[in-house]
Amino acid sequence: MTNIEILEETYDETIFEYSGALFSNCSLQLEPDNEYDSKAIAVYIDSFMVGHVPKKNFSEGKEYIYEQLTGGLKDSQKLNFSVSLRGGKYKINRDDEKVNTGESEYKLDGQITIKTEYN
After folding, report:
1. What confidence score (pLDDT) does residue 115 get?
2. Gene3D superfamilies under this entry (predicted)?
3. Are 83 and 42 in contact (CB under 8 A)?
4. For a designed S-S bond to 77, which of 5, 73, 94, 115 qualifies (C-beta 3.0 to 4.6 A apart)?
5. pTM for the complete prediction?
């Protein structure tokens, strides 16, 4: 969005440069030899490891994912994983007079779907 559009159409809403970039060629891989967490789950985009499923503040979700990756899926089911990017450089209208800029840490939001094939 241009600065004029931000002033005219938003207020106190962070507009990120790379908001919503979606990656579909993603995978989750177990890391049983991880020195910090024996149930670690690495997140890959293409062949690059970009992080881990968080252990802190997401214990139930992580445990569910771990169970699915270690045999919880039925033969007719497939786990799909995609990631969207947010963060980095941003613009924000805080006072309707000028657009402020800043930068935050990049974050990845993951989405898991389990598809069941019916014959």
Report:
1. 86
2. 3.30.70.2330
3. no
4. 73
5. 0.72
